[in-house]
Amino acid sequence: MSKEEDNAKNPEGAWAAAGFAVVLLVVGVPVWWFTTTVYRAQLPYSTIETLSSQLRHHTVGVTIIGSLPPSFQEDLVKSLGSMQSVKFLMSQRQPTKEERQALHSGKTPDELDRHMSQLVRVAAGMLAVVVLPEAMEIKEVVVGTDRLIYIKATADLQVVSSVVRNMVMDPLASRYAFTNRPLHHKKEAMRQVPTEPGYDVTLTLMVPEPHRTKIEWDARAAVTDYLSPVVKQLENVSKLTVRSQVLYMTGLSVSPQWSEAHKHYALPENQLPLTINAIEAKLGSFVWTRPSLHFVVYIPREKQLPLHIHAADGSPLPSNSFLVPRWGGVMIHNVPTAAPNVSLPRPVTLDSHWIMSTVLTHLHRLLPIPSLREIEGVETLAMKDSSMLTAWQLDGLARARVSAYLSNIRITLQSLCELVGEISNMVISDEVGGWVWGAVEEWEECGRATREGRLQDATLYCTRSFTQADAAFFHPSMLALLYFPDNQKYAIYVPLFLPVSIPVLLSLKMVFGLCRKSSTKEKNE
Amino acid sequence: MSGTSLSCDQGVSETSEKTHTNNWAVLVDTSRFWFNYRHVANVLSMYRSVKRLGIPDSQIILMVADDMACNPRNPRPATVFNNAHQHINVYGEDVEVDYRGYEVTVENFVRLLTGRLAPSTPRSKRLLTDDGSNILIYMTGHGGDGFLKFQDSEEITNVELADAFEQMWQKKRYNEILFIIDTCQAASMYEHFYSPNILAIASSLVGEDSLSHHVDPAIGVYIIDRFTYYALEFLERVTPDSKKTLAQFLQVCPKRVCISTVGVRLDLYKRDPSRVLVTEFFGSVRNVELTTRVLDLPKCGGSRQVAVNKSVNTRSSKATKPLHYASQLPLHHS
After folding, report:
1. A262 in contact with B at a CB cutoff of 8 Å?
2. Cβ atoms of residues B165 and B193 within 8 Å
3. What is the torsion angle, in degrees rounded to the nearest 10, for the CA atoms of residue A9, residue A13, residue A15 and residue A21?
4. Given CB atoms, is A40 within the 8 Å cutoff of chain B?
5. Which of A454, B27, B179, B231 could form a disulfide with A449 if both were Cys (CB 3.0 to 4.6 A apart)?
6. Cis before residue A306, ω within 30 degrees of 0?
7. CA A84, CA A173: separation in Å to the nearest integer?
8. Within the 54-83 window of chain B, which residues sit less than 8 Å (CB to CB) from chain A?
9. pTM here?
10. Interface contact B291-A362, CB threshold 8 A
11. Is there a contact between A67 and A100 (Cβ–Cβ < 8 Å)?
12. Catalytic residue flag (residue B184)
């Protein structure tokens, strides 16, 4: 009990211990807290949660102009209603006087379509179905160039339903919108390029023997005539930057066989998969970071002329070109063989129309632009005098991209929130916070625009949201490696604070003992 | 219907299961100093195999932590051999090392995998994969139970590696990964993987050391490791259109030659390795689709033909505009 006697005689010891404890708690802990908290900008976690769980669908308004049998209309509504990610708002009206005049005026389908497109102004993202009079000499279902479908009252319901579904959105894209993972078993899903705001399109002309053939091709004119209108049309949906180059002295390493039956060199299909590996390094795809699409025009070597691709069954392919999913396309352009005794290099002109048709075919399949080629019994009208896309194709592409963006944005933001939640001392800078807030706002707007059917707004919002979400996710400071996980925090702080706090805590015990003693003494007195 | 035929070789049905659209390879050597010559030879030999089988340089990320070819102790300067007979110079004249010397750090490696690089990083140092990419990741160096040593001064743990793969999976940056690691106690590195579609092969189990194969008396150091030596023997017989499967690759180094036991992790990989071709990871076989129908476009630019001819003539008469190279450094597209 000598210690207690000592303490009773030296209350200063107790006060000193109490003072230490007070300083430790009142000054030390806050200072440590403020100097070690990391700056974390506030992120809208709850909004991201709510927006992630919202189901999204496109709304498409379909107006039926003319009268259809009521059962037809009901069945059409029912079969369209089964499409998962698109909700159709059907409405019906009778044709106006001018429209009726135009319908009965006996024009050809193209002229009728042009006239009707001007009379019936269909807003972007909507469709209209025009019922044709029975007497017209026209196929059962005709798809116009500007969001109009012409049907006869006797048309097949299934055909009409599948036409409308395919026009509105690529069926794969609508399934993809509901799953996180791409649909691996579908080759078509792996063919289209991943959805990004911009792509680099490179046209490459490969001339392996420039000393024998002098190629005269005005690529600039070809691109301006055929490709630029499409690029301009697609500006809001996806930005394409077109470049072209010529590669000399580079050839495809293929070994074709001379085919006596066809009198040309046959390139079997199974040699194609490995052809582009050798030239990939020379195409300059290492220069830019946007995803690139390559379209290669290959002029065969003199001793392999003429060169034709043969399908698996041995028949030559008329288009002489093939598509590499997500990469681009290659076409072989044969030139006439050199006459003997002609001075080398001989000038050769290329067929721009054929080249650009092939390039656009491949581009349509890569983007992908919706097409109705696979549906029987439908006639699709194309734009005259131009390679531009029809309005419904543009709408369909925009819808597919908006769906892809929405699911991408959801995954990115959810993953970001998870990462940030896991590492509680990860710095979230204002820059990243700003991007995330911006992305969430635009995401909300995009969702609203999609539900209301405002397709152009939705595309704009989605593109911006996607860019911001990706910028936030891939920000260099978001690296988990740079921050200590929570369990390592204890390993750092325990050896730091424990040796200091143990004596203080033990002396506190003495302080309390003293306090109790003095209070009992007071009580006793 | 548009052409949808596959790149079928005679009677191979495996190609219909192929789910990837491009191939990438990340080859990492993490050790420095002259006596770790064999690790550089390992990774450069894999680089040569992968390049020979078709993956272009733009899709190979090669990280070599030290320079053996120009090391002052190298009696054969500018060469790296993987065999005492010195048949092949795996360094060659066209090797493209993306991360060299002290750039090979844990941080750079994880940044590369997760894509969180500084905006000024050139394209050749980025892993621009997408959800259709099959990635071959090969790592070699010195390792221990649960870590891999980088540059003799830092280490990457198996948890960090697993988290990096998970970040890749969440952002859909790979379709399938073949992860090969040739270090001591290599199997510990794949213990913590939890993302799907990863097949991991390790040259030794926890508690075992991976051994090197032979010494080259002319150079004076061990030239190659056992697992990589036998793996390369196997790969040398693989051609770009070969039918060898991954199941055969997994048997490449039995215990009697490798001395250490090869560890394999198959639970995260849902395909059957005996139906997966080796070239699906080591080579670059693309699915091609023949185009059966070309769009029927109207002939455009008819009215401009005259103008074009005129401009062509005038252009040839005056001096042609000087040509210039495209800008080699990518501008930061914000």
Report:
1. no
2. yes
3. -150
4. no
5. A454
6. yes
7. 11
8. 54-59
9. 0.85
10. yes
11. no
12. yes
